[in-house]
Amino acid sequence: MDTGNGTGRAVLTVTQLNREIRELLDGALPLLWVEGEISNLARPASGHVYFSLKDARAQVRCALFRQRAGLLRFRPENGQQVLVRARVSLYEPRGDYQLLIDSMEAAGDGLLRRRFEQLRQKLEAEGLFREERKRRLPRLSRRIAAVTSPSGAAIRDVLQVLRRRFPGIPVRIYPVPVQGQDAATEIVRMLRIADADPENDVLLLTRGGGSLEDLQPFNEESVARAMVACRLPVVSAVGHEIDVTISDLAADVRAPTPSAAAELLSPDRLHWLRNLTALHDRLAGQQRRRLAREHERLLALDGRLQRQHPGRQLLDRAQRLDRLELSLQRRMHQCIQDRRRRLQTVDQRLQLRHPGSAIRQGRERLLALSRQLLRGQRGQLERLRQRFGRAGHALENISPLATVSRGYAILARDDGRVVRSVGDVSQGQQVSARLADGQLRLEVLGSASKADEAGDG
After folding, report:
1. Residues 6+ apart with CB under 8 A from 231
2. Does domain 114-267 fall into CATH 1.10.10.10?
3. Which has the least CB within 10 A, 49, 121, 140, 187?
4. What residues have CB less than 8 Å from 298, skipping those under 6 apart?
5. Is residue 237 within 8 Å of residue 258, measured between CB atoms?
6. Which residue intervals of the chain bear CATH 2.40.50.140?
7. What φ, ψ does residue 426 adopt, rounded to 5°?
8. Intervals of the chain under pLDDT 70
C-alpha cells in the first residue's frame, strides 16, 4: 500500500484494488448453482469458452476453461438454457466480475431444444425427412383419420373448416392425450390402429399450440418413426405456425395450423360445383359434336355402299383381270427373251473356256519350255568344258611334275619334309630324289653353300 503522498492516506493502485476485490470474492462465496441462458458465446483457439449467462433482467460474464470444457456432455450454443456450478471471481486486467465455471448442464427449454436438434440431425441423416420419400395426399379423401384429443380446440377447428368447405368427407377421431408422459406411446398406438383401418385413406396428427414442453410428445423419435412406417400419407398440424416439431418434419405434408390442414385435406365445394358444371357443359357439347360427326359418317358410308354394289364390283374386277393377264403375257415374253440372251452369252463364255483349248495351249507351252531348257543345258555344259580346259592348262603350268620332267629332281628326307636348303640335311643322312619316272635313294656325303662356292672361286 502506497503512503508516500504526504497526506498520510492509504492509496491503492488499480491493480491492487482489483486484486483485493478478487481475493475478497474468492474467499467470501462458496460454489454456487446458477441458471440462465447462454449468449455472446466465443471459442478462441486456446480451447477456453467465454459467454454471458443472462435472464430477463441481468447478465453475468462466464469463463469455462479448456480442462472443464472437455468434460461437457454437450456443445454449448447461444440460446441454450443451462445450469452451471461456478465460483465468483474478478478478472483483474479489466475489473470484470465473472463466474468461473466448474460444471454445466442443459436445463429447462435449453435441454429440450438440444434434444430436438440432436434428434432432428439423427433422423435427417437416416433420410426420414427426404422429399422423395414422402407420399402425395389423395385428391378427395374417402375418410380422414384424426389422431388428436377429442376435446381440444384443434379438432373443433378442423371440423368447422371441413363443414364449410366439403361436408361430405367423413372424419373418424382416434382419441389420444396430446401432452404428458404417456402421450407419445398413445400417439404411436393410435397411428398404427388408424393406419390399419381400410376405410381410411389419410391420417391427420394435430393439436393446438403450447410451450416446448407441452409439444414434447410430438418431438419423440418413436412418433416420427411410426409416422414414416404408416402405409397412408400423414399430415402433421401441431401448434401454431411458428412451431416446428419432429412430427412436422417426418410427416408427408406439414400444415402450419389445424385449420390449414383441413383446407389441405378438403377441396373447395363451390370450386368443385363450378368445375362439375363446366364438365357437364363440356360433355354435352362433345356429345352433340360426336352425333354430328356420326351422321356425316353415316351419309358417307351410304354413298360408299352404293359405289361398291356387287355388279359394279364384278365389272371392275373383270377389267382388272384382263389388264393383269396382258401384263403377265408381256412380262413372260420379256423374261423368255432375257433368258435366251443370257444363255447365248454363257455358251460363248463356255466355248472360250473349253478344256481342249486349254490342254493344247499347255502342251505347246510345255514343248517350248523343253526346247528352251535343252538349249540352256547344252550352253551350260559347253561353258563348263571350256572352263575346265583352262584350269587344267593352268594346273599343268604350275605342277612340280612338269618341272621334274625337264630333268630336275625333288629331294625329301625320311620324315617326308622337302629339302629346300643345304641346311635341311647333314652328312651321312639318307634322302629320296623324285624323278619323272621314279625315285632314288641317296646318301649325303657333304654340303657346300653358295657363299662357300663363291669363296672357292
Report:
1. 195
2. no
3. 121
4. none
5. yes
6. 14-107
7. -130, 165
8. 1-8, 108-111, 271, 307, 309, 311-312, 401-402, 449-457
Do residues 154 and 207 lie in contact, with contact meaning Cβ atoms separated by under 8 Å? yes
Determine the 3-state secondary structure of 457 from DSSP: coil
d(CA 25, CA 427): 147
Distance (Å, rounded) from C-alpha 249 to C-alpha 252? Answer: 8
Task: Return the C-alpha cell found at 454.
Answer: 663363291
Parallel/antiparallel/unpaired status of strands 234-238 and 81-91: unpaired
> How would you label 113-124 residue by residue, b for 16+ Cβ within 10 Å and e otherwise?
bbbbeebbeebe
Per DSSP bridges, beta strands 49-54 and 59-64 are antiparallel
Cα 379 to Cα 343: distance, rounded to the nearest angstrom = 53
- DSSP lists the bridge partners of residue 435 as 438
Residue in the block written with cell 411458428: 242
Sequence letter at residue 313:
Q
Say what the pLDDT of residue 368 is.
86
Contact 202, 134 (CB under 8 A): no
Residue ranges matching CATH 3.40.50.261 in the chain: 114-267
Query: Any bridge partners for residue 291, and if so which?
Result: none
Measured between alpha carbons, how far is 103 from 73 in angstroms, rounded to an integer? 10
Q: Quote the pLDDT of residue 93.
A: 87
Q: Taking the alpha carbons of 74, 238, 216, 243 in that order, is the dihedral positive or negative? A: positive
Look at residue 425 in the predicted model and tell me its pLDDT.
Answer: 83
Q: What's residue 212's pLDDT? A: 75
The pLDDT value given to residue 235: 95
**11 in Cβ contact with 2 (< 8 Å):** yes
Distance CA 160, CA 418 (A): 151
pLDDT score for 446? 79
Cα dihedral 286, 289, 294, 297 in deg (nearest 10):
-130
Cα(249)–Cα(219) distance, integer angstroms: 10
Taking the C-alpha atoms of residue 391 and residue 5, their distance in angstroms, rounded to an integer, is 149
Burial label for 266, CB within 10 Å (0-12, 13-18, 19+), is buried
Q: Are 79 and 41 in contact (CB under 8 A)?
A: no
Q: How far is CA 262 from CA 9, 155, 242, 259, in A?
A: 81, 10, 18, 5
What fold, for 14-107? Answer: OB fold (Dihydrolipoamide Acetyltransferase, E2P) (2.40.50)
Task: Count CA atoms closer than 13 A to 308's CA, side-chain side.
Answer: 6
pLDDT for 149: 93
Q: Which of 163, 334, 154 is nearest to 259 (CA)?
A: 154
Q: Which residue has the cell 371392275?
A: 316
Give the model's pLDDT for residue 206: 93
